[in-house]
Amino acid sequence: QVQLVESGGGLVQPGGSLRLSCAASGVTLDYYAIGWFRQAPGKEREGVSCIRSSGGSTYYADSVKGRFTISRDNAKNTVYLQMNSLKPEDTAIYYCNVRIGSAVYWGQGTQVTVSS
């Protein structure tokens, strides 16, 4: 059974940093592309970043480019999202997902709040 668990969210001041983790069980993340998404109150879920499978390339939404970095730790079967220079508009619930064939799996999300 595939499970994704996000962690690392919290309250941070503008300009601060957080590192989100997406830990998996039931699947070897290195074999698949992993995405980070976010959903702010009253808004649709949007894609933030993606890392392709083994040694693959990365993608960032324009709104986070240069501030966020996605990476893998295969030994821990975990994907990270390092978020620097955070802005109030980054406030959202952040989710990771993996697509395996026709099935898409999501974690429960982790809340990120950027506020002074």
Percentage of residues in strands: over 45%
Secondary structural class: mainly beta
Rg, Cα atoms, Å? 13 Å
Please tally the β strands and state the result. 11
Explain how this protein is built:
By secondary structure, this protein is mostly beta strands. The chain is about 0% helix and about 55% strand. The strands form 2 sheets. Strands 2, 4, 5, 6, 9, 10 and 11 form a 7-stranded mixed β-sheet that branches.
Which terms would index this structure?
116 residues; seven-stranded mixed β-sheet; four-stranded antiparallel β-sheet; 11 strands; 0% helix
Quick take:
This protein is mainly beta.
Map the helices and strands.
Layout: E1 3-7, E2 10-12, E3 18-25, E4 34-39, E5 46-51, E6 58-60, E7 68-73, E8 78-83, E9 92-100, E10 103-106, E11 110-114
Parallel strand pairs: 2-11
Antiparallel strand pairs: 1-3, 3-8, 4-5, 4-9, 5-6, 7-8, 9-10, 9-11
